[in-house]
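ESCALATION

Customer reports they have been waiting on this structure for their group meeting. Please prioritize. Original submission:
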Amino acid sequence: MQQRMLIFAMGVLLAMSTETSANGLDFEALVSEQGAVSQLPSLLRFDARDGTALSYRHYPSDSPTALVLLHGSGTDSKYLATFAQALADAGAAAVYTPDVRGHGPSPQRRGDIDYINQLEDDLADFIYHIKAENSAISSIVVGGHSSGGGLAIRFAGGEYGHLASAYLLLAPYLGHDAPTVRNNSGGWAEPSVAKIIALSLLNRLGVTSLNGSTVLRFNLPAEYRNGSETLAYSYRLMTGFNPSNYRDDLRSINVPSLILTGSADEAFFADRFESTVRPHVPDAAVVTVPDTSHLGLLVSEDGIEAACHWLQTFGKF
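Update from on-call: job pushed to the front of the queue and completed.
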């Protein structure tokens, strides 16, 4: 047992330190995305099973398909506005963009959750809420960008995966040990590697009392901050936002799925998704948008068109 734990810990360490960090993400793409902020739908709320009111935005459409689109790390649902509105306007799906627990303008506890699997529970509760609010919805697509895509993959491999009719994964984070991930996500993330290793070992021994410790920080330049960003994560939030095991979680996907990436992604190796995903999800559609960055994928006309087409045909490329 101890030998297996040591091997696991060394894997974490090696995965996080085998490559020189890049300069970081192209945040200028955020400037373009923020152009849609003035048109943002108002924040709505639903009650999770623990009684906490969680926020989301709704982009209505006559489509019988609902897309739950999860934001990436350190931010909230605002930056998804351009992408979400375009899909709704095209009639591809009614889009819902929740602020993941621990994020948004006024979370109960910024950067933290109560237990590792809470985000999966929240997502299931949100899907039940959507179905109760709109009886015309016949299909639920679970999707996400970056870490949001990682949460969608975790959801697929968990107890609620059957709730999704399809998965739309935009430059998804597969986990620190995936060949698609650049070191520290291209300089965006600063993990406390020693803490993560220690807490991983403790959790394997059943010790979870220290899971509220901060283990991950994000490099969002000051000029792009507005007070709603979440620049540090606890161990339990970091872990719950990632796939449990990307290989096993991906193998659980037996419904239509699209993995959409940008060829100029600074956080991930776009050219490695095909070989990484295909062995586990043979029928997945894997599309790379030329000359598109990690954040630029959300405002790319070609990326939006590919997602619209896939949603309207459910993968029949």
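Sent to customer with the following note: Residues 1-23 have pLDDT under 50 and may be disordered.
Escalation resolved.
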